[in-house]
Amino acid sequence: MKIVPDTSVVVDGRITSIVRRKERGAAEVIVPEAVVAELEAQADRGQETGYKGLEELGELAQLADSGAITLRYVGNRPTLDDIKLAGGGAIDAAIRSVAEEEGATLITSDWIQARVAEAKRIPVEYLRPKTRGKRRKPGLLKYFEPDVMSVHLKVNTLPRVKAGVPGQMVLKTVGKEKLGEQQVKRMAREILAEAKQHPKGFVEMDEGGATVVQLDDIRVAMAWPPFSDGLEITAVRPVAHVSLKEYKFAEIIQERLRDRYRGLLIAGPPGAGKSTLAQAVAEYLHEIGWIVKTMEKPRDLQVIDEITQYTALEGDMSRTADLLLLVRPDYTIYDELRKTTDFQVFADMRLAGVGLVGVVHATRGIDAIQRLIGRVELGMIPQIVDTVLFVEDGAIRQFYNLRFSVKVPQGMIEADLARPVIEIVDFESGRTEFEIYTYGDQVVVMPVEEGEESSPLKSLAERQIAYELARFVNGPVHVSLEGESAATVYVPEKEIAGVIGREGRHISEIERIIGIKLNIQPLKARTGKARTRSEGKPAKVDMERQNVIVRAGGEFSGQHVEVRIAGQPLFQGTVGRDGFIRVAKGSEDGKTLQDAFFANKRVTVARLS
């Protein structure tokens, strides 16, 4: 009998099995030149399908040399344009023409090719994927013990696996013999064959010497020469399935997710547990009644069947986004953001009103935000992303809020330097950790030192209020200025009555002096660091013609201190470079210091911290 194989059956290796069957007798195999050209083009691009197909043609040549079959190559070699149009059917049409002209049976595993051949009355045999009994598992899977997260195989090396749980992974060698090239090739082919038959198997990428296969919950990346220096297989799978309620901050995250207009970034280094958290978020959103989709390349999130996973449509995530805007999901999980186009698509969908959860590689939480800079307009960042969760060792280590305001950045003094500022606020402490703003033509990402979140003017006002209160308080004092006309003051609980005074006389007098309404609260209600009063260091007092000199000492140079007489605060001031504080004799504080000098009272200086 005469048979004409198309590219699909040459690639999957079944054509040699067909011609070896005794009941078929000696076969004449007619290979269209179009098949050879397509396989050659695939091999040139580094695709494994091309290599496998050429090896199958080699086996057919060996069968022909032994006399088992007759082998001929016929037809015209297609042009480069024909090969580029293979997806449009140009190559398939050339193969059908050969079968029709030769009066041969077309052998194919391409369902569309078979249906077209039948319509044109060309004899055709369609080979469906077959399984006999229990399908044999690929040899690669034997390395996946229950605690194994990843398998690492390479020609001429010992197989290795990474086992454990996130944060406690150990890389260890398994087996005593190095892997041969044929062993690794066989496992690669088994994975490719399984991907075509498995209901949850996909060949996500096959180009340039790199092949990526998603097989259920296992992602397999294969590298071939010349892209790599040797055949290598890396297989990764999740080792934990965690519910969102098991994470730190679970209730707050759930509350935010219930608002569909949130933009969330999940950041962390490779293998930190980002995908596990993203899966937990996706399933929670489904549980509370949202329509959830994913955008992934490759599609390796392990989500329930009700959540549809999309990849790049024709290799372009922007086309996938166009489709999703028609589908109208409430939330989309974007795994992962790497290229500029990814961030731009993420921003476009977010501004279109779609709730988005993005997954991004980063070594710190702030790095995830910095990756947006330059890719989207700076002022739009808080509208695109308002929450960042940094994951490490399977746990949420940082929880950032993004806040937009117009203010003088920390470290600047002049009021006319006010500008739009993005504040990165740590959720747990409530402290601003970074400020992002423009300075000239540059975008500045500036860490905010602890205790310096506010502007210098605000800090000065808080210190003055603390000074006024110090005469009534024995212990630490913390002042938090709230706007221009109010402040909250935290003092030890036992000191509250003394600060307020009988019928509120003390607090009323202080409010009259400083012009600010004060709210007195117990110190234990404050989670931050309180301003403490140290014992202070003895200071020598000298007289000049017009000034009283308080010799604080060089160790206090340039620092803000409190001057006390007999343990009672007198005033606060900044020590000069020479270690001195000069006070005019005619001032109230100067007169008090002169009296203390002549009365030989103890004068001390204490840092304000």
Describe the structure.
With 609 residues, this protein is α/β, with parallel strands linked by helices. The chain folds into five domains: 2-126, 3-Layer(aba) Sandwich (Rossmann fold); 139-236, Beta-Lactamase (2-Layer Sandwich), CATH 3.30.450.90; 244-447, P-loop containing nucleotide triphosphate hydrolases (Rossmann fold), CATH 3.40.50; 456-525, K homology (KH) domain (GMP Synthetase, Chain A, domain 3); 537-607. 30% of the residues lie in helices and 30% in strands. The protein contains 18 helices and 32 strands. The strands form six sheets. The chain has a ten-stranded mixed sheet, with helices on both faces. The chain has a seven-stranded antiparallel sheet with strand order 8-7-6-12-11-10-9, covered by helices on one side. A hairpin with an 8-residue loop joins β11 and β12. α3 packs antiparallel against α6. The longest helix has 18 residues, at 48-65. The termini are far apart. The relative contact order is 0.05.
